[in-house]
Amino acid sequence: LSWAFRLSVLVRLISDSILVGFKTGASLTIAMTQLPSLFGVPGGGHNFIERLVILMGQFTQINLVVLSVGLVALAAILAGDRLLPGRPVALAVVCFAIIAATLLGLPALGVPVTGFIPPGLPSIEGPSLRLSDVEGIVPLAAGVLLLAYIEGVSAARSFAAKHGYALDTRQEFLGIGAANLAAALGQGYPVAGGLSQSAVNDKAGARTPLALVFASITLALCLMFLTGLLENLPKAVLAAVVLTAVAGLIKFPELLRMWRVSRIDFYAAAIAVVGVLLLGILQGILLAALATGILLLIRA
């Protein structure tokens, strides 16, 4: 419906300065969700500050074996990216990590691994939606759609700017709608273009949407035949993959440049960073968009 009514004009509320702040705030938030796995602690919390406080309180519980595995994976990925640019270094590190964890018995030493993954593909059937459920679901679905669209388009705009291609913001609505209709038939949860996954995809050398087609086919084959091989994949290695991918999206130098060039742009980006860290992605972006409008009105 959003695609049909051309509601993509909403994206005009998100300026490039807000996008820079969003990427920085979202990247820091994603990194904070991965650090507990890297340190081998439980973690917890609902926003960046809460997670940081909890993580600092768990420093005495750091598992040195888990941390060593994560740091070795981080070093290997960073070194591989420098020595072998454009090669699937992260994939090779994941494969070596599974082999090493199996041979060295890392799960027995307390290293958290992915564990058992049920094999097979989901069954296709209609959702059991009752008419009485609609009233409660529609507002929630609208919020999820707005968050999915803003996050997806913001990530897409950043990579479009990086690689110099045009972005059809209206088509994003069609893609999100089609993907979620299909996911509902397979008992999935709402899906959208995620920043961390897109960063990993870009870092692996993806250049066209066909990368997602091949990734989906590979994932289906893994679910059918290879789930047993993934049981011993250390979670610290997965954290290392995500951390190295999102590190390039943190734009502190860009924020400093905005401070020198345009204070309004800097304030918008800073509000987006702080809003995303404290309130979450959707609330942070909306707060930054509102603040930008107010700043422009004051200036006018």
List the helices and strands and how they pair.
Layout: H1 16-39, H2 48-57, H3 64-83, H4 89-104, H5 134-163, H6 169-185, H7 195-203, H8 210-226, H9 235-247, H10 252-261, H11 263-279, H12 281-299
Assign the structural class, choosing from mainly alpha, mainly beta, alpha/beta, alpha+beta, or little secondary structure.
Answer: mainly alpha
The overall average pLDDT, rounded, is 86
Q: What is the H/E string?
A: HHHHHHHHHHHH
Radius of gyration (Å): 21 Å
Distance between the termini: 36 Å
> Uncertain regions: pLDDT < 50 for 5+ in a row?
none
- Multimer state: single chain
Strand content: under 5%
Instruction: Tell me the number of strands.
Output: 0
* Biggest sheet architecture: none
Apparent shape: globular
Helix amount, in percent? 55-70%
Count of discrete alpha- or pi-helical segments spanning 4 or more residues: 12
Can you describe this structure?
- The protein starts with 15 loop residues before the first helix and ends with a helix.
- The protein has 300 residues and is mainly alpha-helical.
- Helix 1 packs antiparallel against helix 9 (235-247) and helix 1 (16-39) packs antiparallel against helix 10 (252-261).
- 31% of the residues are buried.
- The model has no long low-confidence stretch (mean pLDDT 86).
- 67% of the residues lie in helices and 0% in strands.
- The protein has twelve helices and no strands.
